[in-house]
């Protein structure tokens, strides 16, 4: 019996895998695969928007070597949406050019491959379809997505494809009564880039801290000759301001990291 290596198996599959836009006839299988793969349940409206192309772009993978009644059935998929860069959650990171108010990003919503077709490069090919599409949009500066913290296979895939992990979001997902962190990955295109290198970010942070310490020292020096009672009142007022600021920051983070 001839030996068939994994390389041979991948080569044979690659020759029969085809990629196409998702269409209305895919609705039932698309819902089924999402239900089988993801712990998160999506509303029916989401699937209707995908198959009808309402504000969502999508690609499906099919295996042309399957029997006639299955050769056009989805074995993998990717869904994405175009959003304005200035309205995105990474606007503070990419700092969209104010002179180009129409700059956009492509956000990957879902990506999946059925179990029997995994590790054959299908997910990578689907991501490349998204990147190719995003590059065709002159105003688009990046493709980005979230990955749940325990999905090591997906994290390795995105890193291998040169996506950059720019942020960790604590308690981003809420699944079956438990919170999970998320990593945010970005792939820059069409001249888009991070405004600062890691070294520049560290330098900025150090500069900011030094500036803050100098300001604090100046205030302390200015007020050192005041009476104890006045200094006590000053401390009380500062304490109130700090508590108020902390509450505002917590409230903002809760809204930003909510999974919708």
From TrEMBL:
<comment type="similarity">
    <text>Belongs to the acetyltransferase family. NAA60 subfamily.</text>
</comment>
<dbReference type="InterPro" id="IPR045141">
    <property type="entry name" value="NAA60-like"/>
</dbReference>
<keyword id="KW-0808">Transferase</keyword>
<dbReference type="GO" id="GO:0000139">
    <property type="term" value="C:Golgi membrane"/>
</dbReference>
<protein>
    <recommendedName>
        <fullName>N-alpha-acetyltransferase 60</fullName>
        <ecNumber>2.3.1.259</ecNumber>
        <ecNumber>2.3.1.48</ecNumber>
    </recommendedName>
</protein>
<dbReference type="InterPro" id="IPR016181">
    <property type="entry name" value="Acyl_CoA_acyltransferase"/>
</dbReference>
<keyword id="KW-0156">Chromatin regulator</keyword>
<dbReference type="GO" id="GO:0007059">
    <property type="term" value="P:chromosome segregation"/>
</dbReference>
<dbReference type="Pfam" id="PF00583">
    <property type="entry name" value="Acetyltransf_1"/>
</dbReference>
<dbReference type="InterPro" id="IPR000182">
    <property type="entry name" value="GNAT_dom"/>
</dbReference>
<dbReference type="GO" id="GO:0004402">
    <property type="term" value="F:histone acetyltransferase activity"/>
</dbReference>
<dbReference type="GO" id="GO:0120518">
    <property type="term" value="F:protein N-terminal-methionine acetyltransferase activity"/>
</dbReference>
<feature type="domain" description="N-acetyltransferase">
    <location>
        <begin position="17"/>
        <end position="187"/>
    </location>
</feature>
<keyword id="KW-0012">Acyltransferase</keyword>
<keyword id="KW-0159">Chromosome partition</keyword>
